[in-house]
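Intended use. Records like the one below are meant for learning the mapping from a protein sequence to its folded structure. Do not use them to infer anything beyond what is encoded.
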Amino acid sequence: MPKIKTRKNISKRFQIKKSKKKGVRVLKRTDGQDHFNSRESGNTKRNKRRDNTMKKTGTHNTILRAMPYAK
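Structure written out for the chain above:
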């Protein structure tokens, strides 16, 4: 049986972390960080520095399925 391929676009945008209480957390990189951030306001630039924790919804399970070896 071959290995399952990881979806590379999802692995670049999301990160899977283990937590003691809740099992698995999915962190999402903030949108729009790639190019020309100097025009952004100070609050926007500061908010882009940290990742956001996703809520457990259907998308959460899809991300976990697309990254089989990140757990």
